[in-house]
Amino acid sequence: MDDAVRARLDRVADLAPLHVPPALTVLDAARLLLPGVPHVACFDTVFHARLPVAAREYAVPAAWRDEYGLRRYGFHGLSYAWTLDRAAELLGRPAERLHLVLCHLGGGCSACAVRAGRSADTTMGFTPLEGMVMSHRSGSVDPGALTWLQTRYGLTAAEIEDALNRDSGLLALSGTSDDTRDLVRARAAGDEAAALALDVFTHHCRRGVAAMAASLDRLDALVFTGEIGEDQPEVREEICVRLPALGLAGGLRPLVAERPEIVSPPDARVPVLVVPTGEAQQVARETRALLNRP
User: Which of 44, 121, 178, 191 is catalytic?
Assistant: First the structure.
């Protein structure tokens, strides 16, 4: 990686402020300590690089799109690349013959429509803030509400950005925790704020899954990954049981091992899979592929 590439990374760091700046700090330290070792950057956006135009473009002035590069990029691509391959193995069909909705639920949350092995749409956009409610991030908010906060109450852009990235999501709704495990226990004990947080969260997840299905000809399977997707069977159940219009249903089994599994009943119209997250493994795979090029 040369200095020109490093400078370009600086210019896009503010699109994902929770992840890219810390990653660049680690990258700089590695380059300093290991100057003779190749350094590879694996981008979360690459999986979505060939999004269809209709899924990629915002309906904003042409100058914003052409001069500023305002478009939907999508994220969680490393997770989706890994999850797609594992799901194809589990279903016994090549990825190029599958129409899937992949759902990454963790600290950040998104869904992705995969048509014939390629990303056809995704819920995250120009930044990871767009889309579903997350642990600390708000997900999509009416942009008019944000300009209203600026003009009516004098909030600065920095204040709004910080609140949307760090003080929103499950944490803001519950007032106590951003962890769905805590919230499930609190709801069972009668905590209404925890119940609200989980209701809003699963509602946004269902909305995201349904929106992604609209980009497919059929739904061959719904695949969960990420910490919440793997470890929170209550969330998976609440998403699927209320999406009968997509052929999904409840009665899902907990994940019993740290390996890809079909957790839906054998007679399910649409299989539901859980694939343990493999972003680190995908980074290693892509890095080896790059370094082994002739």
Answer: 44
Q: Would you call 44 a catalytic residue per the annotation?
A: yes
Which CATH number applies to 44-291: 3.90.550.10, 3.30.200.20, 3.30.420.40, 3.30.450.20? 3.30.420.40
pTM of the complete model:
0.91
Read out DSSP for 156-220? -HHHHHHHHHHS-HHHHHHSS-S-HHHHHHHHHTT-HHHHHHHHHHHHHHHHHHHHHHTTSSS--
Both structure tokens of 193 = 């704020």
**pLDDT (tens place) for every residue of the chain, 294 residues total:** 566 665 656 656 666 666 677 777 887 888 889 888 888 888 899 999 999 999 999 999 999 999 998 999 999 999 999 999 999 999 999 999 999 999 999 999 999 999 999 999 999 999 999 999 999 999 999 999 999 999 999 999 999 999 999 999 999 999 999 999 999 999 999 999 999 999 999 999 999 999 999 999 999 999 999 999 999 999 999 999 999 999 999 999 998 888 899 999 999 999 999 999 999 999 999 999 999 988
Q: What does the domain layout of the chain look like in residue ranges?
A: 1-41, 44-291
Where on the phi/psi map is residue 226: left (φ > 0), alpha (ψ -120 to 50), or beta? left
Rounded Cα–Cα distance for residues 75 and 161 (Å): 18
Plot region of 168 (φ>0 → left; ψ -120 to 50 → alpha; else → beta):
beta
